[in-house]
Structures are given as structure tokens and as C-alpha cells.
Fold:
Amino acid sequence: MDLGTGALWERIRDAALEACRRSTTAAEIEQVRVAYLGRRGELTAALREVGRLTPAERPAAGEAGNRVREAIETALAGRLMEIADRELVRRLQNETVDVTLPGRRPAVGHSHPLSTARRDIERIFTSMGFAVADGPEVESDWYNFEALNMPVGHPARDMHDSFYVDARPGPDEPAGRMLLRTHTSPVQIRYMRARAGALPVRIVAPGRIYRRDDDATHSPMFHQIEGLLVDRDVTFAHLKGVLAEVARRLFGPETGLRLRPSYFPFTEPSAEADASCVFCRGTGCATCKGSGWIEILGCGMVHPRVLEFGGYDPEEVSGFAFGMGIDRVAMLRYRIHDIRLLFEGDLRFCEQF
Ligand code: DAH
Structure:
């Protein structure tokens, strides 16, 4: 091997640089590096030979060999960068975006008419100082009937065709049969008991309720929003004032409110409230069946026994309560004539609102 003259170094260098130029991938570059600079590489072997030269020959040969190593390393690194750049350019060309193409509109969902109605009703009440409460849909007979002044055998129970279920009351619940709640009124009792005598009690409680009914105007599952206000010196005038304001905010400023005497076991006196017909403005149409009025809720002054079941002293406090059908409000607002449409989930229906 002619380490002294430099011919060998030049041959190795030229061969390595040529192999480097011919490489087109990072893997090929690595092969070239191993072939020349690796532990058993050609240049490595030649450099090892330098140790056998005479002390006089060694420095020049070593220096020449190291220069070749540097040259090869520099060439490999440069070529590797070129390959990476070319790769990047190719990728960018493949991934070009045609900014002139029309955009694709994402599918946007929206609230169901029932959700909108519930939210609007909640907002009206919260703006008047009411809190929003809720209670379980699987309810005990005691909360659903008994504590609302409907003891076993009370004829008013017949109006609530109930779904009884095989469920056990929770550990802190009164014993008795369990059912799917037939109205939101049990939340009155639950909330009063949780407040433990504190005043005022001022809530609305929206939610699902269940009755064994099924036709164009009745669904086995529907929605109510319960209202309850208990404080000192609450009168029927407060009830009427709040409901008249709610009717105006819900159906428009010209809306009138009318109270008709009625009967509920949990209120005394009791009334049903009608709003002037949103469609004909009181002159009579098909929706209001010619009367000019549409029933929107039941209400009354909380019965003394109900206050007691809630842990309040009827000698000290009084209250009013009401129960409004949310589905009814949505049907009136959007002129929907079949309640079942609200629950079928048919997009052709839902997308109209
Ligand atoms: N719970 C009654 C029902 O489902 C509605 C109702 C009437 C609720 C009068 C009340 C009320 O709070 O005072 O038919």
C-alpha cells in the first residue's frame, strides 16, 4: 500500500465521493459511510496501516488520511441534506392545496324545539330570581302522591295513569311502590325538605314526566316545568302577577292571562291559567277552538298539608305553585299539531326550526 505518496488516499477519496454522488436515499448514504468510514471500512483500514510506517513517514500519511476522512464526511452530510430537501419538495408538491376550490360547509346541529322552549322558559324565571332545580324520574309513591296530599285511594290519582316499576326506594327514602313520576310536583317536596325551613323557596323544576297515554295530543313521555315560591305573606296576587309577566314574555307583550277556578289536591285555591290565543289574538280560531284562549298551566296556593310535608309551618309561610307543559308551549310557538312529532327524531321535522 502506498500510504506515503498520496495516490492511495486520492483513490479512496475519489471512489467514496463518487459513491456518495450516486446515492439517492438516506439508506444508501449510510451504506457508503459504513463502506469507507465504518469499523471495517476501507479508509479505516488504510488509517490503521499508518501505524506501521516509520516515524518519519507517519505524520504526512496520517494527515493525508485525516483530510480524506473529513472530505468524505463533509460530502456525505451535504448529500444527505440534498436528499432531504428533495424529499421535502416532492412532498409539498404532492400536498398542494387548490385554494380556488369551493369550501365544504360543515354540518351544524341546533337545538331541538323542545330544548329551545325549555331554555326560554327557564331564562324568564331565572331573570325573576327563580333557581332551577330537578328531581328523579323514577319516584316513590310518597313523593309523587302522598306528600302532595293525594293519599292512597284519592280519586285524583286516577287522573294520573301511572307506570309502576320494579325498583326499590333508596336507603333514605320512604317505603312504598315506585313509579315513573307523573308530574314534576314531587320536586316541590324534595326541594322544600332540602331547604330545611330556609326562606324564600323560589324554584322552577323542568323535566320529563310519564303517563299511560298515547295519541296526537298525548305522549307517554312529556315535559313539565314546575314552579314553587314559598315565603312570608305570599298571596294569590303574586301568583297572578308572575304568571301574567311570564305569558307576555313567552308569547308577546299583548298576551292576556285569565285564571279559571279549578281543583288540584296540592293547592287551595287552585286555578287553570289561559293565555290569549297566540294565533288569532283572542278573536277565535281552530287552535283555540273558537274560544280565544289557550290553557297553559295549572296553579294555586300551596296547600297547608303540602307545606307541612315540606317541613314548613303553614301558620308562618304561604306559597304559590304552578305546573306548565313545556311540550304545549313548543307546540303553540311553532304551530306543531301532533305532539309525537317532537319525539320521533325525524330530521325532516327537526330541521325546520
Ligand atoms: N301537577 C299538575 C299536573 O300534572 C300540574 C300542577 C297544577 C302543578 C297545579 C302545580 C299546581 O304545581 O299548583 O297536572
User: Anything to note?
Assistant: The beta strands are 131-132, 138-140, 164-165, 178-180, 201-210, 221-231, 257-264, 267-276, 293-302, 318-325. The pocket of 3,4-dihydroxyphenylalanine is lined by residues 183, 185, 226, 264, 267, 298-300, 321-323 (CB under 6 Å). The first strand starts at residue 131 and ends at 132.
